[in-house]
Specification:
The chain has a three-stranded parallel sheet, covered by helices on one side. The chain is globular. Helix 1 packs parallel to helix 2. The protein has four helices and three strands, in the order H-E-H-E-H-H-E. The chain is α/β, with parallel strands linked by helices.
């Protein structure tokens, strides 16, 4: 099955405003009345290299757009490539942003997991 996706690209000098504009251009296509839980997955590869991580201001722009439409449960979930995601949440300011928007944090590297087999249409 193919699902069409809409993508919005914006360019600007202000990171938060640019991210907010891009998200704002597509976010109302989601069926908000049917959504019960939102999970946002930033990219926090190595917290000691900020350029390898989603900026806290960009995450705040996304959370602001989501929270203005959704009053339910929001989780910011990440499993860093190295070291603790919990440490990265603190060092990069993600924890403060999550708190501001009443979002939970989840370190995917510390969560429970189950093995899962996924096959394509050919059974491979």
């Amino acid at each position: 099955m193919t699902i069409a996706s809409t993508v919005a690209l914006y360019h600007g000098e202000d990171r938060a405003a640019t991210v907010s504009a891009a998200v704002g251009a597509v976010i109302d296509q989601l069926p908000w009345s049917a959504i019960t839980h939102v999970v946002i997955k930033p990219n926090l590869v190595w917290h000691w290299i900020p350029a390898a991580c989603t900026h806290a201001g960009a995450l705040a722009a996304v959370l602001e757009q989501v929270r203005s439409r959704f009053g339910g449960r929001i989780t910011v979930a990440e499993g860093c490539g190295e070291n603790s995601s919990t440490d990265a949440f603190q060092v990069l300011g993600i924890a403060g942003v999550a708190k501001r928007f009443n979002a939970q944090l989840l370190d995917l590297n510390q969560d429970h997991w189950l093995p899962l087999w996924i096959m394509d249409a050919n059974g491979l």
